[in-house]
Amino acid sequence: MSEDLEGRILLTLRRKGMTQRQLAQVIGISDAYLSDIVRGKRTGPKAIEKVEEIKTYLGIK
Known about the structure:
By secondary structure, this protein is mostly helical. The protein has a single domain, classed as Orthogonal Bundle (434 Repressor (Amino-terminal Domain)). Helices cover 72% and strands 0% of the residues. Helix 2 packs across helix 3. The longest helix is centred in the first third of the chain and has 14 residues, at 3-16.
């Protein structure tokens, strides 16, 4: 994941008053897995699918 997208996700979470743990619960993944995705440690097909779900949920393009 690009640093730009990582920053947009984290900024949007702050603006919505959400934690990564809350987002992980909504998306249906563990908070550790979400953290790995956001930091770019997970890049496989499942991670890419979850990034799209995260972007949709948060309204990020």
